[in-house]
Structures are given as structure tokens and as C-alpha cells.
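Table S2 (text version). Query chain:
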Amino acid sequence: MSDFSIGVDLGGTNLRIAAITTDGQLLEKITLGVKVALGRDHVIGEMCDAIHRLTDQYKNEGKFIGAGIGVPGIIDMETGMLRKSANLPGWSDYPVRDEIERRLGARVSLDNDAKMAAFGEKWLGAGRDVDNMAMITLGTGIGGAIILNRKIVYGMNGMAGEFGHVTIEPNGVLCGCGNRGCAERYASATAVVRMAREAIESGEAPSLARIAGSDAEFSAKSIYNLAIQGDEHAQRIFRRFGTALGMLLADLVNVLNLDMYVIGGGVVSAWDAFAPAMFEELRTRSLVYAATTPEDPLGKREGAAAQVVTSTRRKTVITQALLGSDAGLYGAARIPAS
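Corresponding C-alpha cell output:
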């Protein structure tokens, strides 16, 4: 018998809940659609119902030690309040942690979803053999987290790791945060679609225009599929994506000088399309990386995961996340047990 905890990954579209043992065994995972329009009470009610269902089901397997919940947005770590979330309208300045604890009658840990993903990768994924790492999550925007001496760095009030809002183009595209030229405006799923639509509007990308006209869910994945078929306009978008991400990484490597930088999130599946430009830009812009580049930075000979085993403090390893979309679930489940 092993004690277990519940990990929750709450997004703007999906709610995922998993029962995971303290030694990392996944007992069961539930995925639900998030009905944001029905309000936070409804969403939290569905979440707590699912948690109750799992804890009842596995109560004979071991002791339930608590729940960890990752949410997209800015968390006040001291009070457990969700200060702001673009994906959860109407949740601002809401005491999420206290409300869930009240309904569950159990200990709850609340944190930003990217930090939960980083903690998951540190526990069982790409970062399991290093003490110091950063995680960059590439999705609708860019999330991030820093781990030093095996502990997440929160900063003064929990907001450390906002890599998506590092400026890489001083007079660039306007960001929702009010700044111009933020990294997530150039290296995210939203950015890929924006650049594709701009290319279509210019009249110089007929293949992209055809895809956009025939695909109701015109997305970064659609554009990636075109890129791997050899379309120059789609490939150009991912090269621009990689260049922007390389600029961001260069800043992080120069400032932090960590063992490892793990890149996760949905857009990492397009690694082969953007990574060459990313590494080229990184070598050009970061003196630290140029001095600590691994022999095989792209992992072509042994695969990205092999770099985890061979990494040393003298080499800067930049690699893909290993846990995929489950990283946040594992990280969230680990928090109550740590």
C-alpha cells in the first residue's frame, strides 16, 4: 500500500484530475471539459466531485495526503488567492485555495500551472538528475518557472518566472499585458497563427491561405503540418519562432547559468521545425551558452533524453520535457507530499 495525493491541472478548456502515489505511480486520471461560462462555483464543484470520487475509490490503497492544483494565472502564495487569470474570467482576487479546502475538508496546495509542470519534470522527468533548472512552457502563451537547489523560486510574491513577458522586440507587437514585443507574441501557439495570418494578408502565402480557408480550426498544428511538408512560408514562421525563443533563452542562460532548461507545452511537438533556429540564435547571443554548449545540443545522436544522464555543471543542457501534458499533474500531486 502506498499513500497517494491528487494532482489537478485546471485550464481554460480542460480540467484534469489524477490520483498519484507518493512514489509516482499513476492510479487513475479523469479529464473533464471546463464550462467557464457557468461560473467558478460550477467548475470548482465539478473538480471537488471528481476528487471525492478518486479519494473514495483508492482509500483502501493508502492514505490520502492532500491535493495540489495548478491554475493558469498569478497566485498570491500566502493567501492562496488567484489574483489574475486570462483563461478564467471572473476568478480574479478569488480565494480559490480556501474554497476548495472548505469543500474537500483536506489540505490543498495551489500554484501556477507552469510551476507545477516544472516541479513534475524535476520529480520524474527531464530534470530529475539536476538541482537547478528552468522550465519554459509553450502554449497559448509562454509560462515559466525556476528551480534552485531543488526548490521553486517564487520571488517576492509568487510572480517569478514570467518568461513570456521578457521583451525581445522593443517596438514589437502589442501584448495583452500592455507591453510591446513580449516573447510570447513571437514564440507561442498564438504567435504562430498570428504570423501565418499576417503572411496570408500579404498575399504571398497561398498555401497557408488554402489551409486557413479549409480548416475551421486553423492552428499552430495545421501550420506545422504544412512546414514538415516543405512549405517555405510555414517553415519561415517556425524559424522566426525559433529565433525569438533563442533570444529568450540567451537572456535566461546569461542571467541564471543553470544546469538545464526544459521546454514543454503543446508547441514543443514542433521541435524539429524551430529548434535549429533556436540553437543558432542562442549560440550567437549568449556568451555563457557558447562557452558551455554540449557536444550534441540537438540530441540527434542519442536523443534529447540522453542529455539528462550526461549533463554536468560544465554544460548547459536545453531539452524537451519528458512528461508531456502530464507534467503539471505529477507536479501538483508531488507538492502535498513534499
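Notes on Table S2: The chain is about 40% helix and 20% strand. Confidence is low (pLDDT under 50) at residues 301-306, 308-312.
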